[in-house]
Amino acid sequence: MLVDHFPLVGLRLTTPRLELRLPTPEELADLADEAAEGIHDPAVMPFLVPWTDRPPADVARGVILHHWLRLGGWTPQSWSLNLTVFSEGRVVGLQTIGASDFAVTRTVSTGSWLGRRHQGQGIGTEMRAAVLDLAFTGLGADEALSGAFDHNATSYAVSRKLGYADDGTQRHAVGGKLGIERRLRLTRDGWERHRKVPVSIEGLTPCLPLLGAG
């Protein structure tokens, strides 16, 4: 079975409303469709790499290729786990958690996107809480990093709600324009004080060596 060779396909995170896991091929197609329908105001770019600034068919194909690229380049020293987010069995978005040299740094970073029709319902907070539980409870992380451009008030609000603290700013060129990123850092203490979403983790133990935590 595939899970015997690549146990991450058996990893599941569940919250009161959501399930996060690697998708089947057809579910990956649904995720691509969700992205192609739009995930933010076209007038404002929330991503450092402007991957959504393309025709819908190219956006959809990019989601699929990026998913395969991350899995194909996987090593315990450098990994990025793109978990599809399901609400009531329906694909609603993507939640990423990644790390470099986790065995030494004990640090993860996160990123995400959510289909526009699913925004404003608290799903973004709940799916981030799921991977933070994976990081701190499951992997024994010491800290988690995130960031958002200064115009992305929604992402910033989610981070602060979950206990992140400001960690400086960084200037980027995005589409030929200046973008100011507000960096954020969550310590284990901050996570424990703001932890409110119950999370269940299944299938983690065989994944630990692949995540640099075994």
Automatic annotation (TrEMBL):
Transmembrane segments: none annotated. GO terms for molecular function: protein N-terminal-serine acetyltransferase activity; protein-N-terminal-alanine acetyltransferase activity. It comes from Actinopolymorpha cephalotaxi. Gene3D superfamilies: 3.40.630.30. InterPro entries: Acyl_CoA_acyltransferase, GNAT_dom, Ribosomal_N-acetyltransferase. This is Protein N-acetyltransferase, RimJ/RimL family. Residues 18-187 form the N-acetyltransferase domain. GO terms for cellular component: cytoplasm. Keywords: Transferase.
